[in-house]
Amino acid sequence: MSNSGQRNGKSAPKGGKKEYKKKFVKGNAPVKKKAAPKKASDSDQIRLNKYIANAGVCSRRDADVHIATGLVTVNGKVVTEMGYKVKLEDEVRYDGARINPEPKAYVLLNKPKGFATTTSEHKGKTVMDLVANATSSRIKPIGRLGRNSTGLLLFTNDDKVVNRFTNSNKGVERLFHLELDRNLKLEDLKRIREGLRIEGSMVNVEEVDYVDNRKNEIGIKIKNTGNTILHTIFGYLKYELVRIDCVAIAHLTKKDLPRGHWKHLTIQEMNTLKMM
Question: Model pTM?
């Protein structure tokens, strides 16, 4: 009967088990991959020149030139280092203008009650939950609707479109359908049309009128991105807002968009929005 430890006339080394372990450790290439956790922490980072190229500004080679000449800032600081890496959430600006390597996305939601307009994860149910599967781009809502308000809310990662909404001189019109706790007096309707001076500031709206002659239901058009102005106006006149519903944002309406559903804007809708 042969002995496996004496094959080919060679005897098994003493402490073979121990020696086997030692050789395994030395010769096991995967052991060197213990540095993997460090790579994982950088997995969401991208070279700055690639970030700029992905944003459509220029080629990577040209991006290196722009970086070297100090035209690029990251989170407010000029970066001239070649190979510098950034995260997608970093604020990168080229020649003063913010750039974004993600595809532009424009999502319109018909918001139901019970959802807060916030990107915070600690506010219960939010509008971000409703559009979570709409796009991989990091979109955010433009303006606000109260948790119990309903209607249209636009999301995008396009800073130029956001600026159009938040521009204090131009802005974008939004049409609301309001329900009050009692009929709006005609003299109060006229006061709103003419503009109200509240706490030393003029508060103006674009249009306001009764809805189908129902005097407790009001159609009002404003350019503000939030709905605080609505509470300000009617609270000042001693009315309570029972219902707030945003029925239109510029040329965008709720047609074929049920409550709680979202849609991507069509090319025509996007182009019209950008031209405003």
Answer: 0.71
